[in-house]
Amino acid sequence: MKYELYYWPEIQGRGEYVRLALEEAGAGYVDVARGPRGSAAMMKMMDAHTGTPPFAPPFLKAGKLVIGQTANILLYLGDRHGLAPKTEAGKLWVHQLQLTITDFVVEIHDTHHPLGPSLYYEDQKAPAKKRSAEFWDERVPKYLGYFERLLDDAGGAYVTGRRLTYVDLSLFQIVDGLRYAFPNRMKAFEKDIPGLVDLRDRVAARPNIKAYLASERRIDYNEQGIFRRYKELDA
């Protein structure tokens, strides 16, 4: 089965966590909105009045199923492509961790848009600078410290032990994205999360991920997505 992934064509965003899972699994998929009239097809599916129309991208079409929300999509893919534990408790555990990552992604986005997405960054620079300082003083140590501890407690190469799950792929994206958005802050903080830094490098070296990162399928970071580089926020 070839999957259809629907997400905005010009940014990594929340769709990137799904792309990483599909790429690691070697699954066939089409990034629909990056093709001709793909964005129109995506909007048409969201406007549908029958079936289970998604609220917003990303969403995944798998046969007759249309699955929305990043963590929900990864729950589905993880079970079918060996990217999640086999036990019910294990599946729920990695799903719980992905939901925690989802919360963190919201906070990352709010560093540059603390007053909401309806305003341009230029309209909220002062609040963004204040939010970014609080983010690095309080939120980053809390979130990344938590995952660093889990990785250490697992005693293996990955968060759940010896086998990679979609959570490890998502943590790769978090560390990699923060390096782009906050190079100075992240350089100073990485000494506190050596395990996550090693995890990032370990994931990047996996054959399918390495090939993906070097391909045109990997959209470059830019100032339209979740991870945005603004010099004044990285003091």
Question: How is this structure best described in words?
Answer:
- It is a single chain.
- The protein has 235 residues and is an alpha+beta fold.
- It folds into two domains: 3-80, 3-Layer(aba) Sandwich (Glutaredoxin); 88-206, Glutathione S-transferase Yfyf (Class Pi), Chain A, domain 2 (Up-down Bundle), CATH 1.20.1050.10.
- The chain is 53% helix and 6% strand.
- The chain contains nine helices and four strands.
- It has helices at 15-25, 38-46, 70-80, 88-110, 125-154, 166-181, 183-189, 194-204, 207-213, and strands spanning 3-6, 29-31, 59-62, 65-68.
- Strands 2-1-3-4 form a four-stranded mixed sheet, sandwiched between helices.
- α1 crosses α6 (166-181), α1 (15-25) packs across α9 and α6 packs across α8 (194-204).
- It is globular and about 45 Å long.
- The model has no long low-confidence stretch (mean pLDDT 97).
CATH fold type of the largest domain? Glutathione S-transferase Yfyf (Class Pi), Chain A, domain 2
- Strand order, main sheet: write it out: 2-1-3-4
Task: Tell me which CATH architecture of the largest domain applies here.
Answer: Up-down Bundle
How many individual β-strands?
Answer: 4
CATH class of the largest domain: Mainly Alpha
Write a brief caption for the model.
This protein is of the alpha+beta class. It has two domains: 3-80, Glutaredoxin (3-Layer(aba) Sandwich), CATH 3.40.30; 88-206, Glutathione S-transferase Yfyf (Class Pi), Chain A, domain 2 (Up-down Bundle), CATH 1.20.1050. It has nine helices and four strands.
What's the layout of helices and strands?
Blueprint: E1 3-6, H1 15-25, E2 29-31, H2 38-46, E3 59-62, E4 65-68, H3 70-80, H4 88-110, H5 125-154, H6 166-181, H7 183-189, H8 194-204, H9 207-213
Parallel strand pairs: 1-2
Antiparallel strand pairs: 1-3, 3-4
